[in-house]
Specification:
By secondary structure, the chain is of the alpha/beta class. Strand 16 (about 520-525), helix 22 (about 530-540) and strand 17 (about 545-550) form a beta-alpha-beta unit.
């Protein structure tokens, strides 16, 4: 990409997002957010200041879902595409289970961006998981990021607790405390937070400690008024209805009439995901308990897409089972329609018009509704609405005067509001007309796009702005991510007896690295802790390099800010059981734990004399306990137990993979057996002239060069030999 316009990446991670016929309502994760991000991506892509928009989500390869979700890229228009990144395996899992895999998602997105050849100007995270990814990438590349929460954990937790679920169960199901903690950090660091309503700022973000630290921009989402046109168009101009629309209408009528004994009545419509928070049971209860309401209207609930209820997730299965039980308990056969599926693109707009044509009402009984896209869709179609008096519906009804707000926790309130609209043609007509006009006035995607782009341009350096923008902003610093993605070659060297040992040659090497810094990056790999590494570098007047690999490859840090590589930490946690390791090796009397400063989260260190049988017994003890570990013994006294995925060599391989640097463009330098695993990799290996005899057996290997020069002089020799300088 070499264009000069804006490059925007949106993150909505759960994966069930596709351009054609999105499966809204398929499960608890496929609701209004899917529609929002799809339409936002496409409207931003039409803006004259935008070159490229990527909607980034999770790649899923699972026979239970469409094959399109396994496609790495799906183009929506000339400059808008869905980009899919694999993490956490390939099977579909609900979004709450994605938290442990987000750092993997970030690593693979970084690799993807290097392949694309351009870093986005803005990262825009949706929901807490997408916000976390956008935040981490923004810090990596020194770019701004925007957050849109859609719903927030504190508000959700309070509502669920009020519904009777215990905190422990909420955490088990929704990982709510992890989410809330992450949201606090996102709110503090986001350059801009976009909300759909003012109420969202006050009642949801207001629950967070860091909320006062940020600026909020209210930008209501828009809708496609060409799809959600008023119901009376079909009456006034039936000749211009295309055949496909007529077929859709007949399909819906036949489906609904299968359930109703008197299909001529008006009907009450609910359209939502099968989620406990949507309070579908409350609506059925309101209808079932009120005989007058049952005589006035039928009820239709489109609760997602289902095949076999018994095979669904617990949340969806419980909601749908409860719906059927309530249907039976209140004997609503012939009155309640619960179709098994609907097509969003074609059937939902017609469904709203069909309900309005019958003189019916749209009800959103959700306990938690941050905005309520279905409410503005229904209103645009001319259908009066009933919704909760807490959340986004408050702003919608204030703007449009198109329905009634109630306390949805009381089923009698739901029934009374529905009857009020059904029994008063004048009020019904007023709400219908106000909704049609109000949506067109307040909920336009074009307006949303203009305000969003204006927000983005305020965050960017002057060179990236529209000509209309004249305000200045500070350029972001050259972040380590931008530097690493621009590098052609990389040097990684051990410190002790390799980098240090000859002060004069060290200064020569540092000067060479400085002169070639535009294309050549460098780092150190050492068994020392970060603190000890910084001490010796300060002592030797060595500047902070691009990369520090410390504690025998168990920790990776970047740049002058020493930013931890969280993806590497997550990678190491696989099968790592430190307490069990300590218990197992504590039974051996020939090893002694090192001091506290030598112990790390992913490194357990001991002193051990150099006796051949001792090391064998360590291996035997670990194998007997079925512990998968990496055992490093060096300098005749240091024994380090690491996760099985850890070592200096594996850390270097991880860096090469993450930043897309090919092995032949990486040179590693060392002097002892502790460096062997990194020297034996596919990179260019350099052994300094003062090396231990432990490395002599590597002589003759094609990719390893033994220099006659010692210490930093050997590194300089290696850089010349491998043509790095």
């Amino acid at each position: 990409m070499t264009k000069s316009g804006l490059y925007i990446q949106l993150f909505s991670l759960h994966g069930l997002i596709r351009g054609e016929s999105p499966e809204l309502g398929r499960d608890a994760d496929t609701g209004g957010q899917v529609k929002y991000v799809l339409e936002l991506a496409q409207v931003l892509g039409k803006h004259p200041d935008v070159d490229q928009v990527d909607l980034v989500t999770r790649l899923i390869q699972d026979k239970t879902v469409s094959t399109i979700y396994a496609s790495p890229m799906e183009r929506l228009s000339e400059n808008v595409r869905i980009v899919r990144v694999q993490c956490g395996g390939r099977k579909y899992i609900r979004k709450e289970l994605l938290w442990p895999h987000l750092d993997e998602f970030i690593d693979k997105t970084i690799k993807m961006l290097r392949a694309f050849g351009r870093i986005p100007d803005i990262f825009h995270g949706h929901y807490a998981d997408g916000g976390y990814v956008a935040m981490e990438l923004a810090e990596t590349f020194g770019t701004p990021f925007i957050f849109t929460g859609h719903s927030l954990g504190r508000n959700k937790k309070a509502k669920i607790l009020a519904g009777g679920m215990k905190t422990r169960e909420i955490n088990k199901r929704y990982k709510i405390d992890k989410r809330i903690s992450t949201e606090e950090t996102i709110i503090e660091k986001a350059n801009c937070i976009i909300t759909s309503t003012k109420q969202e700022i006050d009642k949801q973000y207001g629950l967070y400690t860091n909320s006062p630290k940020n600026d909020f921009t209210v930008i209501p989402p828009g809708i496609d008024i060409d799809s959600f046109y008023p119901y009376y168009h079909n009456r006034l101009d039936p000749e211009n209805q295309n055949e496909s629309a007529k077929q859709t209408r007949m399909t819906l009528l036949r489906e609904l009439q299968r359930f109703w004994s008197d299909p001529q009545k008006p009907f009450i419509l609910a359209l939502c995901r099968p989620d406990q928070r949507k309070n579908i049971g409350g609506l059925i209860e309101a209808y079932g308990l009120d005989g007058d309401l049952r005589s006035m209207a039928n009820l239709a609930i489109f609760a997602g897409i289902r095949k076999n209820i018994s095979e669904m997730e617990d949340n969806e299965r419980n909601v749908l089972t409860n719906m059927l039980l309530k249907m039976d308990f209140y004997d609503l056969y012939g009155k309640l329609a619960i179709p098994k599926k609907h097509d969003f693109a074609s059937e939902v707009p017609e469904l709203y018009r069909l309900c309005a044509d019958s003189g019916g009402v749209f009800v959103n009984p959700a306990l938690v509704e941050p905005f309520g896209l279905t409410l503005i869709e229904a209103s645009a179609s001319g259908l009066p609405i009933i919704a909760t008096n807490d959340g986004g519906p408050v702003d919608i009804v204030a703007n449009c005067e198109n329905g009634i707000l109630i306390d949805v926790r009381d089923s009698s309130n739901i029934a009374s509001a529905i009857k009020e609209l059904l029994a008063s043609p004048e009020k019904w007509e007023t709400c219908s007309r106000n909704g049609i006009n109000g949506v067109r006035r307040h909920y336009s995607w074009e307006s949303h796009s203009e305000i969003t782009i204006a927000c983005i341009q305020k965050l960017l350096p002057l060179a990236k702005r529209s000509k209309k923008q004249e305000k200045t902003a500070a350029s972001s610093r050259d972040a380590f991510g931008k530097r690493l993605t621009d590098l052609n070659k990389l040097l990684i060297t051990d410190i002790d007896n390799t980098l240090e040992g000859n002060s004069k040659r060290l200064m020569e090497l540092l000067e060479i690295l400085h002169k070639n810094s535009a294309s050549l990056g460098w780092g150190v790999a050492t068994g020392r802790s970060l603190e000890m590494t910084l001490d010796i570098m300060t002592e030797q007047n060595i500047p902070i390099p691009d990369i520090l690999i410390c504690s025998v490859g168990t920790e990776i840090y970047y740049g002058p800010d020493l930013r931890t590589d969280k993806g590497w930490q997550q990678h190491l946690s696989h099968f790592w059981k430190p307490e069990k390791v300590k218990d197992t090796l504590g039974k051996l009397d020939f090893i002694t734990p090192q001091e506290a400063e030598g112990q790390r989260r992913y490194k357990i260190s001991y002193y051990m004399k150099k006796e051949p049988e001792f090391l064998a017994r360590v291996y035997h003890q670990l194998q007997k306990a079925k512990l998968r570990c990496q055992v490093i013994y060096s300098h005749g006294q240091f024994l380090d137990i690491l996760p099985h995925r850890a070592s200096k060599g594996k850390a270097i391989n991880y860096i090469k993979y993450k930043w897309g640097i090919s092995p032949e463009n990486v040179m590693v330098a060392g002097d002892s057996g502790n460096d062997e695993d990194m020297l034996r990799g596919r990179s260019c290996g350099l052994v300094v002239g003062n090396h231990d005899k432990d490395l002599d057996h590597l002589k003759g290997q094609r990719n390893i060069f033994f220099s006659k020069h010692t210490y930093a002089g050997g590194i300089i020799d290696g850089l010349t030999h491998f043509r790095f300088v």
